């Protein structure tokens, strides 16, 4: 069993992935962290030195390596499902959950860490909002292919453990 978490940066893929892995007593992998370990450089440095096209090819390589992992939750990068037919690959190699978050929730979560996000680095508040809305508009069609769509805005206000129940129903 592999569960792939997809969604925009700031949607909570890594945080929720770690929480779910503890509750389900299975392993957790963060795809971006795997790339950084394997390439011995940060995602930001990869983007700056080699560009997005090179990064996306690395991302695909490391994503495909995840097929050897069982009983794990994999947090993908925000753009992972949108390139190289990755969303189709994800759906044929595990369960996918889209952590859907509104631009306002994403902005709230991302404002403090813009320097760690190569695509958002150096943007003003207005530019950040515009960029996130643009990216979400381009990526939504890929994210919507997920097996489960989980509304993060609603989960912020309501029962966060409901996702665990949803996953249990999905995989058992």
Instruction: Give me the side-by-side strand order of the main sheet.
Output: 2-3-1-4-5
Succession of helices and strands:
EHEHHHEHEHHEHH
The CATH class is identified as: Alpha Beta
- Distance from N terminus to C terminus (CA atoms, Å) equals 10 Å
Q: How many β-strands, per DSSP?
A: 5
Sheet-strand content, in percent, reads: 5-15%
CATH topology name: Rossmann fold
Unreliable spans: none
Shape: globular
- Quaternary structure classification: single chain
The total count of helices amounts to: 9
What is the mean pLDDT? 89
Summed up, the domain count is 1
**CATH architecture heading:** 3-Layer(aba) Sandwich
Largest sheet: 5 strands, parallel
Give the radius of gyration: 15 Å
- The secondary-structure class comes to alpha/beta
Question: How would you describe this structure to a colleague?
Answer:
- The protein has about 170 residues and is an alpha/beta fold.
- Helix content is about 55%, strand content about 15%.
- It has one domain: 3-Layer(aba) Sandwich (Rossmann fold), CATH 3.40.50.
- The protein contains nine helices and five strands; from the N terminus they run βαβαααβαβααβαα.
- The chain has a five-stranded parallel sheet with strand order 2-3-1-4-5, with helices on both faces.
- It is globular, with a radius of gyration of 15 Å.
- It starts with a strand and ends with a helix.
Helix-strand layout with pairing:
Blueprint: E1 2-6, H1 13-24, E2 27-30, H2 31-39, H3 43-50, H4 52-65, E3 72-75, H5 86-93, E4 95-100, H6 103-110, H7 125-143, E5 148-151, H8 152-157, H9 162-171
Parallel strand pairs: 1-3, 1-4, 2-3, 4-5
